[in-house]
């Protein structure tokens, strides 16, 4: 096990900058996910860590030791690929044993016939077999050791790939979108197994994914990347509740956060569609408010948003209500409990509010800016204006 440090990692392909000075520390035994849209540089960063790519500049350290000049085989890392990369002609046991066979047996001892009778070969092969069975039992595939990859499901193949990484006993595990080829049900099952494996081993896991749900459910911390830059690193709760960049807020969370365009006057009062919201900017002027769907609460007065219901999604346990709201270019999404079923209908007008603590403010650069409740109550003009909006949505 080991700590991992990236220091100002830059990578360019010709005139294209893929990584733009990434700096990141990963603790010993931590499960950290690199998440972001396709093309953001997360897989490139993982390949640089693995030694499969060389950076243009910057430094990588594993356990405090620079590894920039080391080949991939000398970095003591195990990588699990999206494509599984299993040998179709070998059994499950033989696939899992490949790294041990290459490491512990000489080239002559690996020969199919004569290698098995050479001195020391039998003892070494027995020890390899024991290690393989232990890994297979941990991953619940011991009953599949004699099968070929073509006889396995996608989830079983992924377990074999994990087993092959596991027997190496590396200082860190690198996983590059390992669940992308699985169906939705199997992805949910496998992400729970991978998180449990991390807890059992206490090893460092660096996990690359474009699926924010995987990152949120599995990780100790998440590093959000976009366009070659590291936008924010933090716990799932911190990224969800306190995004430091509007792009992070929009990427993390499902359904996506509601972004409301607003104006801030000279006194700091925040206006939506020329109406005071009851909020004020505590720092720089606010240009957008971010409100999670579940943060909205239906109300009778003192509303933040007024909208007409355009669509209702009934998920059984939750209700997603989509509104056309004045001054907001995109539909506003509200997440309500199942008890609201039947009480809300399409074309109903809804008034919504949210506590300032659950509202994210963003300045002109899209960076987080503090929002607080206005120190004065809503006046009559404010209420009259909102009633006028309600009649026209």
Short descriptors:
single chain, 393 residues, alpha+beta, Rossmann fold, OB fold (Dihydrolipoamide Acetyltransferase, E2P), 2 domains, six-stranded mixed beta sheet, 9 helices
Any overview of this molecule?
There is one protein chain. The C terminus is likely disordered. A hairpin with a 2-residue loop joins strand 1 and strand 2. The protein is built from nine helices and 23 strands. The protein folds into two domains: 238 residues, 3-Layer(aba) Sandwich (Rossmann fold); 138 residues, Nucleic acid-binding proteins (OB fold (Dihydrolipoamide Acetyltransferase, E2P), Beta Barrel). With 393 residues, it is α+β, with helices and mostly antiparallel strands. The strands form five sheets. A six-stranded mixed sheet has the order 6-7-8-3-9-10, with helices on both faces. Strands 16-20-17-18-19 form a five-stranded antiparallel sheet. It is elongated and about 85 Å long. It starts with a strand and ends with a helix. Helix 2 crosses helix 3 and helix 2 packs parallel to helix 4.
Structural class: alpha+beta
CATH class of the largest domain: Alpha Beta
Count of individual domains: 2
* Beta-strand percentage range: 25-35%
The CATH topology of the largest domain is: Rossmann fold
> How many separate helices?
9
Strands of the largest sheet, in order across it? Answer: 6-7-8-3-9-10
Assign the CATH superfamily of the largest domain: P-loop containing nucleotide triphosphate hydrolases
- Oligomer state equals single chain
Shape: elongated
Count of strand segments? 23
Query: Which range best describes the helical content: under 10%, 10-25%, 25-40%, 40-55%, 55-70% or over 70%?
Result: 25-40%
Distance linking N and C termini: 59 Å
- Give the overall pLDDT as a whole number: 90
């Amino acid at each position: 096990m080991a700590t991992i440090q990236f220091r100002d990692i830059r990578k360019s392909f010709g005139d294209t900058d893929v990584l733009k000075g990434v700096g990141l520390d990963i603790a010993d035994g931590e499960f950290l996910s690199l998440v972001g849209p396709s093309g953001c540089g997360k897989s490139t960063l993982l390949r640089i860590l693995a030694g499969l790519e060389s950076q243009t500049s910057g430094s990588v350290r594993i356990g405090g030791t620079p590894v920039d000049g080391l080949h991939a085989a000398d970095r003591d890392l195990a990588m699990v690929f999206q494509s599984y990369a299993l040998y179709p002609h070998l059994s499950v046991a033989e696939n899992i044993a490949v790294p041990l066979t290459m490491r512990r047996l000489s080239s002559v001892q690996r020969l199919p016939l004569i290698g098995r009778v050479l001195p020391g070969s039998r003892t070494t092969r027995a020890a390899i077999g024991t290690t393989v069975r232990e890994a297979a039992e941990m991953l619940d595939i011991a009953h599949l050791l004699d099968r070929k990859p073509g006889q396995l499901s996608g989830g079983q193949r992924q377990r074999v790939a994990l087993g092959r990484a596991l027997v190496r006993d590396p200082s860190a595990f690198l996983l590059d979108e390992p669940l992308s080829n699985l169906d939705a049900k199997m992805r949910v099952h496998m992400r729970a197994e991978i998180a449990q494996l991390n807890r059992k081993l206490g090893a460092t896991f660096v996990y690359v994914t474009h699926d924010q749900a995987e990152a949120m459910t599995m990780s100790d911390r998440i590093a959000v990347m976009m366009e070659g830059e590291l936008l924010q690193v933090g716990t799932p709760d911190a990224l969800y509740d306190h995004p430091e960049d509007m792009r992070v807020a929009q990427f993390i969370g499902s359904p996506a956060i509601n972004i409301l365009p607003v104006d801030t006057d000279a006194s700091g009062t925040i206006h939506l569609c020329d109406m005071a919201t009851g909020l004020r900017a505590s720092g720089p002027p606010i240009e957008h408010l971010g409100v999670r769907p579940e943060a909205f609460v239906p109300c009778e007065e003192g509303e933040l948003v007024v909208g007409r219901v355009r669509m209702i999604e009934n998920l059984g346990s939750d209700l997603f209500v989509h509104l056309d709201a004045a001054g907001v270019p995109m539909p506003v999404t509200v997440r309500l409990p199942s008890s609201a079923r039947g009480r809300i209908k399409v074309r109903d007008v809804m008034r919504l509010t949210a506590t300032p603590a659950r509202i994210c403010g963003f300045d002109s650069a899209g960076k987080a800016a503090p929002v607080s409740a206005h120190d004065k109550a809503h006046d009559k003009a404010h209420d009259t204006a909102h009633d006028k909006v309600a009649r026209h949505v």
